[in-house]
Amino acid sequence: METYIIIILCIASFFAGFIDAIAGGGGLIQTPFALILLPLEPVSSLMGSLKIPGFTGTSVASVQYLKKVDMNWKLLFIMAVFSCIAAFGGSYLLTIVSNDFMKPLLFGILVLLAIYTFVKKDFGKHTPKEIPFQKSAILGIIISTLVGFYDGFIGPGTGSFLMVAFITVLGFDFLHASANAKLVNLASNMGSLTLFIAKGKIIWLMALPMAVCNGLGGWIGAKLAIKKGNDFIRIFFLVVVIGTLIRLSYDIFFKN
């Protein structure tokens, strides 16, 4: 692998980690770069390799959030377990069938999500709601299972989907939704990584240096998000959702 390719991928990975730490969707940056720069590599190997920097960046960002944001550890643990198992299943399915049939549906959902977030100015800026633990656990299991499976099967925008689900269903504000999304996403990454490593799908030469850069971006992004708060995260969230729409538009309407 040429040195310049690794350097470009590392730069992309840094920005991916930065954005992902704030609002999710970092895969929208590093995934296209990997596909363009390494067209001869199997897609499964590239997707598996990109899980390594994704895992590292999310881990670093999670640590920063944990220092500043109060967490419901019992609820988080339950969601993380189901997210990990579901992502493993999604990644296994990806090795068997194509995920292209899901993209038009995902596109429609994201359009509605972008419109709703833009129109509803107070979305994610409220005081977190108090929901009984049993109800939160059931809803959290449903969310983490569905989004975890999505992460393993499709991937881009996972953090954003977790955030909007935590806000609308569990009553979190943007800051708490982002913190919980990082940790649940970390679990789903672990589930996918377990499968990809077992199948030998990791290109370590690109994955390891990208992991370092992604981790640095995640560290900076998380600190900035915590410092700036809900308004700042909301803006980034909208940018990421729109970026996801552009990416899916290309895949659905223009890609041969």
UniProtKB/TrEMBL annotation:
Its main location: membrane. Keywords: Cell membrane, Membrane, Transmembrane, Transmembrane helix, Transport. It is found in: Cell membrane. This is Probable membrane transporter protein. PANTHER family: MEMBRANE TRANSPORTER PROTEIN YFCA-RELATED, TRANSMEMBRANE PROTEIN YFCA. The chain crosses the membrane at residues 6-29, 75-95, 101-119, 131-150, 162-181, 202-220, 232-250. Belongs to the 4-toluene sulfonate uptake permease (TSUP) (TC 2.A.102) family. GO terms for cellular component: plasma membrane. It is a multi-pass membrane protein. It comes from Flavobacterium amnicola. It comes from the Bacteria.
